Amino acid sequence: MKKILITGAAGFVGHHTVEHILKNTDWQIVALVRLNTIGDINRLMDIEVIRNDSSNGRILFIYHDLNFAINPDVAKRIGHVDYIVHMAANSHVDRSIKEPLDFFYDNVIGTVNLLEFARNYNPQAKFINFGTDEVFGPAPDDYNFKEDDTYKPSNPYSASKAGQLDAGIAYFVTFKLPIITTHAMNIFGERQNSEKFIPMCMKNILAGKPQIIHAQLDEKGNVKGVGSRFWLHARNAADAVLFLLEKGVPGEKYNIVGDIELKNDELCKKIGGILGKEPVLQYIDFHKTRPGHDRRYSLDGSKLNKLGWKPPVNFEDSLRKTIEWTLKRWMEDNNLLDSRDKHE
Asked: 185-230 pLDDT, tens per residue?
């Protein structure tokens, strides 16, 4: 039976990956969690197969902060693993501007400590170094970044993620570790932190409050351009990771791309349509109000598609499901402000 180590297992993308592995394999899972300001164990406890205790003891939880080296005792508890999926990360642009050092510790030093664990204890383990499209910086309107384009991060968060990915590449070249690099688009789904765009839009629409849309404005305040993103459901991200563990080539980079590009105001209007309430949009010049903000991110997903990966769920269905699930949960909790109002 295979065994996989997932870091950041109580984080947003990490817990969806745990769920996907439980449902689609018979593997044993070592879930590495920190649980200070980023991870939320309630996400994992909310997964049906875990909540109903039907995972048959397949998950081992280990609490460890990757800002510190994985010592021999922790390494022994983890044991031999066939795969490592590195999803532990600090992931918010605005917070990275306020607290840049935390992001470099978490995303760069934390990664190097994990790579050292792999080098010393599990050098054969196939390793997914999970990254972001933001490492490339803003994409021109007519271009989708390819895997080997130059990293040009615009803020401390994306710079720290670029450092994370470059560390993995260095360990592949120097120590021959079987490391695969991924760049993922904007990810959404159930149990996402309320500071993220989709749940934040939901809260503002339901409360009748303005939703800020970062845009490019002319001298008269007219909108010249609005930020746009490709959107990827967390289940699709997890499915791509599982696919790459089987078919990905060590040393290669792969873009994991959503199936639709939307301007931020278009997405907010879609959310309002599902909620049955018109959003109040407030356009703000991103150059003046948010340093380090990139108007557009875009990746070319043809490499992964040619390898044979197809996303299992489409955007429209997954967006509706996410909104309906989140709204139901907030209503059950009698709290439309979502109890997870803390760091992702």
From this structure: 999 999 998 888 999 999 999 999 999 998 878 877 888 888 888 9
- In 80-107, which positions are buried (b, 16+ CB within 10 angstroms) versus exposed (e)? ebbbbbbbbbbbbbebbbeeeebbbbbb
User: Which amino acid would we find at residue 330?
Assistant: W
Contact 180, 248 (CB under 8 A): yes
d(CA 220, CA 12): 40
Question: Three-state DSSP class for 186?
Answer: strand
Are the C-beta atoms of 104 and 160 separated by less than 8 Å? yes
Question: Which positions are annotated as active-site residues?
Answer: 133-134, 157
CA distance 191 to 42: 9
* Domains contained in the chain, CATH given: 3-187+230-256 (3.40.50.720)
Beta bridge partners, 281, equal 211
Residues 127 and 323 sit within 8 Å (Cβ to Cβ): no
